[in-house]
Amino acid sequence: MRALVLVLALVALASAAAAQSVRLKDVVRFDGVRGNDLLGYGLVVGLNGSGDGLRNSPFTEEILQSVLERLGVNVVGEDLRARNVAAVLVTAELPPFARIGGRIDVTVSAIGDAESLMGGTLVMTPLNAADGQVYAVAQGTVTGAGVVADGDAAMVTQGVPTVATIAGGARVEREVAFDLDALETVRLALRDADFASARRIEALVDGALGAGSARMLDSGTVAVRIDADGPGAVARTLAAIENLTFVPERAARVVVDQRSGTIVLGADVRISPVAVAQGGLTVTVEEAPQVVQPNPFAPGETVVVPRSRAEIEAGGGGLATLGGGASLAELVAGLNALGVAPRHMIDILRTLSAAGALHGELVIR
Known about the structure:
By secondary structure, the protein is of the alpha+beta class. It contains six helices and 24 strands.
């Protein structure tokens, strides 16, 4: 069974450690300051026999012919059987306020039956946004994180060899039209919506810019009025408030990732009075058939007599109790006293939540 990893995120074990100040820009997003996703369809060449089989991937042959024809090479009617090319999808994110000539990172993913993209070179690929316009052009040598090694009777794969990256592999060719100075109000969107945190941000901004500068709209939005005039007024206002620090509210939350077995428990999680028992049964069945033969020259025949051994072994620890308002540290100490393996923690947390003893949001991904 896959080993599970237990990660205990102890944000604070005491009130002094719990009051951790964070910067405003680390917990909010400024309305309008955002990136844009880009997508392109391209061709990786120069692979060492690990590319697409053109017979199985006709789209690879089509894009190869298209590239060669743009370069003036006539391949109409030719039977292409190259194994050093692969059709790929190229994805990237255009950051906010990216300027023409700037460089951005791209991710290259094979869409055919290529075995590896390592060592290949991405041919010039236009990257389009949702509006259909080309905003960047990608090209360069791909860098993969996966490795494939095979022999006559065995093969080993480490990582994902069909996904690669190109650092700074795309050049920005078009800017996103956005007039920041035209904004009269900038909305701050909280990454974790909370009424108390939004109220603290409102008071924090009012203290820095003046009373009435900020207005809490809901648990996830605070509107900031831009009073200054002239070019760069909005940028200067955001620069004045983004490094302000405050103590945000944190929800009591337990996050479980079932795929990796990772468990993250917030320090504010509390447990009602509860008793926890963890154990299991180990069932063992062994078959040891025995061959029985008749005596020499005696009548009879050779037969196989079954011999079986079955055992049931009870395992696990005893019963542990946790008092009312038990903290995260007490919960972990109690489960450790039971000898609970990390892979059983998910089931225990689910049971505690179903019993109403877990005071916090249980998030299972």
